[in-house]
Structure formats: structure tokens, C-alpha cells
């Protein structure tokens, strides 16, 4: 327990494409081609209350990341806000398309930018947790087949080598990849994200590629700086069978964990210094893969709020005997009416897990800022800090202050 007390990190996460603005990558291209379609489809995709509450979802503009939060230019001020909220750590991602806009050609200006970002965090005593890849690809790499290309691990290794050489002196905590199963599932199984190829064979290949890329990156980062602490961000839902005694439903749950947890950690065995858990949902699976929930308490996106699920997952992960950082947990809540309780309850269950002996060493709320939520665009509001996208005005939400108070005065055992 004592060891955890001195090391506990808490703060929030962002990712480059969702906040920076003015990115030119596979996603920004896809947005331009798909914005009209997404706006048209929104009416049938969402429930009446969602469509009424968020009319911007019916406009094409909602689906173009554009300037986003202009965080690329405003990061210093944004970090001042995180500091004013007493965070002691911050997770952000590097934008590959800025750093390697052409194959093999690295943009020194972009590298310097991220160096300044890292220094700005350290100056404010915010420990940087750096994600190397959070889903967006340079266009040249997307054209070569992206994560499903057999060469992807080698491209990722070259990129990581550059990153490690430039930043390893400044950064201790590295997250190689963000949520491999989510990006693979949406791009290659559901076919709703770029490159929209519905193909189980490619999905499996992309997943294996990503895990292999993590392993290569681990070795590179360790070689450059043996002190580095490295993991990859894994999204796990807390899944239960829809009918408790139905063998088919139980099989679906088993299969889910087999793919999202077992396979991921087996293939990267020995190459994780910590586990990075990202938790959002609870779902009950009805065979084969229909997800249902009881719909009692949901976020603006309709995701069921179930804080106890975090505890269940943390206990599940205890068997790997590695420190755990919760690198994302959050909800879309425009009115800020549920966020305070959401954070309090998740932290409560996280503490319960720690009491049961799970070695949790950090909690990062998703997200510091409202941001661009991929194919859903701007309407879901995840931020501790609200953004007025017309003026770029930042407003600290009440729940952000409550989050701070919880850590400052909440007498949490973890601190
Ligand atoms: O916004 C995303 C993030 O990019 C990855 N994890 C889940 C978040 C909320 O959907």
C-alpha cells in the first residue's frame, strides 16, 4: 500500500486527432468523404431524445474535425487549466502524420513541437504519459494498407525508433498503442471506420500486427532507455451473459475475453511493464454478439453507467501481476449532471480493488477537453473542460472541480 501512495498518478487523457486541429491524415480525408452521409444517417441511428438534444448531429459540419480544440496552439493554456485542477499527470498522443508526413522523412518542426509539449507538462509537474499511436495514420501509410498491411509492424518500429531517440530522455511512461480491439473492430469487422473494409481475415491480421508492433516498440524503447515504463492501452468492457444459465451467452462472454484480454496479453507476454486499462461499458451479451443493457443510467451516448464493472475488471487483471493504470474512463455528459457521481463511484470501486490487493497506480479521466469523437463528431461532450467550438473558449465544468476536491480533500487511501 505504501508503495502505491507515493506513486499514484491522476489526471486526464487526450489524443492528437481529437483535440489538436488541422491534422492531415487518413481520418481527416475520410471525414471529408463521409460527413454528409453521417449527418443523413444520424436521424435513424440515434434515439429521439438524442436527436432532439443534439441537433448538430444532423449537420455535416459536426463530422469534420477541422480546428477541433486548437490544442496544437493552445496546449500551454490547457495545461495551465489541468494544473489549476491539481492533476499530477497527463496522457496525450503523438500525431504520426505530422512527424512523418512522407515515408521516411521526419519533420523536425513537429518533433520540436512535441518536445515543447512534454517540457510544458514537466514544467507544471504533470507527469507525461505519451501514447505513440492513437489510431490516425499518415496518408502514405493508409495507402499502403495501414494496420492490415503485413509491413505495418516495420513501419511502426521505424517510427518508434525515431520517437525513442528524440524523447526517451524526457518521457518515462509510454503507451505504444491505443485500444487495438476497438480500432480493428470498427475498421475491419463493423466496417464503419476508415478504411471501412469488412473482412474478418484482415481484422485478424490487423490485430496480430498491432500486438506485434507493440512488442517491437517495447524492445526499441527499452534499448534506448532501460528505465522506460511501457504498456499498451487496452479497452475492456465488463461483459456478462444476457441469460445467466444460457451456454451460448456464456460462450460469447468467454470468447470476448479470450480475444480482447487473453490473446492481447499472451501475445505481448514479457513486453508489458504495466497494464493500461480503459473502461467505459457494461453490457450483457446475447449470443452471438448482441449487446444489451438494462438502460437505467446511461450517458448521452446511451452507454450504460456501471462503476462496479471497473472493480470486476481490475480483479480480473490481477492475475497478470503487473501495475495497472486506468488510462481512460469517462462519459459524454453535456449537462454535467452525471459526471461528478460517475467519477466518484468509479474511484470508489477502484479503491475497493486496491483494497483487494490490485496494484492500481493511476487514474486518467477521459477527457481533459471536449473533443472530436471520431465518427460521431463533436456532439458528445466528454470534457472536464467544455469547449465552445465557435470561439474556442474553455469553461471548467463543476465536475472537474469535484474531481479535484476528491483527490485533494477526499482522504482517499491511495494518496
Ligand atoms: O474518444 C475515445 C478515445 O479516442 C478512445 N477511447 C474511448 C474514447 C470515448 O469513446
Quick summary:
With 415 residues, the protein is of the alpha/beta class.
Which SSEs are present, and which pair or pack?
Elements: H1 2-7, E1 9-13, H2 16-19, H3 26-45, H4 48-53, H5 71-84, E2 89-93, H6 96-99, H7 108-123, E3 127-133, H8 139-143, H9 152-167, E4 173-178, H10 180-189, H11 200-224, E5 229-235, E6 238-241, H12 247-267, E7 275-278, E8 282-286, E9 290-292, H13 308-317, E10 324-328, H14 339-355, E11 360-366, E12 385-388, E13 393-396, H15 398-409
Parallel strand pairs: 1-2, 1-11, 2-3, 3-4, 4-5, 5-7, 6-8, 7-10, 10-11
Antiparallel strand pairs: 8-9, 12-13
Describe the structure.
With 415 residues, this protein is α/β, with parallel strands linked by helices. It has 15 helices and 13 strands. The strands form three sheets. The protein has an eight-stranded parallel beta barrel, surrounded by five helices. A three-stranded mixed beta sheet has the order 6-8-9. Helix 13 runs parallel beside helix 14 and helix 14 (339-355) packs parallel to helix 15. The protein starts with a helix and ends in a 6-residue tail after the last helix. The mean pLDDT is 96. 5-hydroxymethyl-3,4-dihydroxypiperidine binds at residues 15, 18, 179, 278, 328, 366, 373.
Amino acid at each position: 500500500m505504501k508503495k502505491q501512495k507515493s506513486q499514484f498518478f491522476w489526471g486526464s487523457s487526450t489524443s492528437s486527432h481529437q483535440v489538436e486541429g488541422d491534422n492531415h491524415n487518413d481520418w481527416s480525408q475520410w471525414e471529408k468523404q463521409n460527413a454528409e452521409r453521417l449527418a443523413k444517417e444520424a436521424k435513424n441511428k440515434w434515439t429521439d431524445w438524442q436527436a432532439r438534444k443534439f441537433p448538430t448531429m444532423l449537420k455535416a459540419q459536426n463530422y469534420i474535425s477541422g480546428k477541433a480544440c486548437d490544442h496544437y496552439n493552445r496546449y500551454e493554456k490547457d495545461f495551465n487549466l489541468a494544473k489549476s485542477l491539481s492533476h499530477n499527470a497527463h496522457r496525450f498522443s503523438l500525431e504520426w502524420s505530422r512527424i512523418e508526413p512522407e515515408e521516411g522523412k521526419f519533420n523536425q518542426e513537429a518533433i520540436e513541437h512535441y518536445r515543447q509539449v512534454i517540457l510544458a507538462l514537466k514544467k507544471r509537474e504533470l507527469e507525461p504519459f505519451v501514447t505513440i499511436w492513437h489510431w490516425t495514420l499518415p496518408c502514405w501509410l493508409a495507402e499502403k494498407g495501414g494496420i492490415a498491411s503485413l509491413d505495418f509492424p516495420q513501419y511502426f518500429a521505424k517510427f518508434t525508433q525515431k520517437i525513442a531517440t528524440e524523447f526517451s530522455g524526457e518521457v518515462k511512461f509510454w503507451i505504444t498503442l491505443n485500444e487495438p480491439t476497438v480500432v480493428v473492430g470498427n475498421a475491419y469487422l463493423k466496417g464503419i471506420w476508415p478504411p471501412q473494409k469488412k473482412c474478418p481475415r484482415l481484422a485478424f491480421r490487423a490485430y496480430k500486427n498491432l500486438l506485434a508492433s507493440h512488442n517491437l516498440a517495447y524492445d526499441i524503447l527499452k534499448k534506448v532507455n532501460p528505465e522506460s515504463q511501457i504498456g499498451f492501452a487496452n479497452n475492456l468492457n465488463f461483459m456478462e451473459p444476457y441469460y445467466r444459465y444460457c451456454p451460448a451467452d456464456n460462450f460469447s462472454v468467454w470468447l470476448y475475453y479470450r480475444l480482447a484480454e487473453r490473446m492481447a496479453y499472451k501475445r505481448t507476454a514479457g513486453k508489458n511493464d504495466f497494464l493500461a486499462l480503459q473502461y467505459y461499458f457494461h453490457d450483457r451479451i446475447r449470443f452471438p454478439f448482441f449487446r444489451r443493457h438494462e438502460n437505467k443510467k446511461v450517458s448521452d451516448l446511451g452507454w450504460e453507467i456501471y462503476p462496479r464493472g471497473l472493480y470486476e475488471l481490475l480483479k480480473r487483471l490481477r492475475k497478470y501481476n503487473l501495475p495497472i493504470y486506468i488510462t481512460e474512463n469517462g462519459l459524454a455528459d453535456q449537462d454535467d449532471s452525471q459526471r461528478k457521481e460517475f467519477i466518484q463511484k468509479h474511484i470508489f470501486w477502484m479503491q475497493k480493488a486496491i483494497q483487494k490487493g490490485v496494484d492500481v497506480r493511476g487514474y486518467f479521466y477521459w477527457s481533459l477537453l471536449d473533443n472530436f469523437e471520431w465518427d460521431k463528431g463533436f456532439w458528445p461532450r466528454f470534457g472536464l473542460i467544455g469547449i465552445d467550438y465557435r470561439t474556442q473558449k474553455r469553461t471548467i465544468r463543476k465536475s472537474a472541480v469535484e474531481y479535484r476536491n476528491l483527490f485533494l480533500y477526499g482522504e482517499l487511501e491511495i494518496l
